[in-house]
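pinging the channel bc i need a second pair of eyes. not urgent but kinda urgent?? the chain im working w is below, pasted from the shared doc
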Amino acid sequence: MNIDVKANPGFKKVDRSKKRYIVMKGSAGSGKSVDTAQNYILRLMKDKGRNLVCVRKSDITNRDSTYAELTGAVYRMFGDKAERYWKMTTSPLSLECRANGNRIIFRGMNDDKQREKLKSITFQKGKLTDVWCEEATELTQADVEIIDDRLRGELPPGQFYQIRMTFNPVNKNHWIKKVFFDRYDPDVLTHHSTYLGNRFIDAAYHRRMERRKEVDPEGYKIYGLGEWGEIGGLILHNWEVAEVSQNLNDYDDIAIGQDFGFNHANAILLLGIKDDDIYILDEIYVHEKETAEIIPLAIQHAIPTNKTMWCDSAEPDRIKTWKGAGYRAKGVDKGGSAGSVKAQIDWLKGVVDKNHIIRRRIYVAPHCVNTIKELQQWKWKKDEKTGEYLDEPVPVMDDAMAALRYGIEGWRKPRSWLF
């Protein structure tokens, strides 16, 4: 068997560790998820009786993250012989090692039903021995404790249970920092990695991160250096993750917001409003896709064609394409102070005008993980000389936020739009 293994030496310690908890914080592009996927493929091929569950807060996000990473690792290592060694299925998502029957399955922790399914997992061969919590900051401490409780019982000599967590450290007040980094535990191995130590990152990515360093120094600390994020300067505080109704009839009105993109994300949000509160029901968040490729995704997500889709008016050709596909796409009028980003943000906060403030809340469905991630780090620019925050958002990783700002225009300015 010829295996093509490409590894960064900085992950050697975690890949060899048998500690129960491997907690890996790092920057974007550090290679932690790629290394984790490759390590699991090798481990499950080598040791009989081991089985892996990959966990995300929202089950459906596994398809484009953990499943994609694991199948990608198989194809990189074995090339056109990949399916000789691994059986890979998409419905349901699963991988099975053909040589020994070890399996990889995928689960979410969105609600009590999904948590109960996790508690009842069994395998025909061996036990549940490994858990990969990707984007672990999405999970609550209670979620991880449910997972931890599943790893119990005697194992053959030399075998071990292990939970590996991978994430960007967005908030220094997160429970993961307090539990795993701020106190010593002999069963825990913590690890830190950045894109600077990833020998497989291309030069263009390095230049992109250098630009972010200049534009968004605080964000660069998280997504470039993998340091714990500060919560100062956050733009929105009146939001929370919650189970929201997917029945469009439960809302006073429905709208769609879209921020066009290609190299940066093209973001579409399905929004509802009820009693002045905003509900983010669904998201589409994709990179390097043309409009013709995104429209079928909108159909799959049941984005309604009879509701207004508010878009960036700077892209009239794309708006025309969406109209041609049957959607009520309109450009947002961004002219004048009434259409400014600050005015949109004030409205999202509940500031209708200087004499009218309401207690507006924003509720986000748990599977809208990219929107949640942006809300966690959407900040005002900071004057480096004075240390004061400016009335201007940092223009980085804000595609879902732009879609949110556009999507509320019909409610914020019900009689003002650009066709």
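so The two ends are 61 Å apart (CA to CA). and The chain has a mean pLDDT of 90. — does that match what u expected or am i reading it wrong
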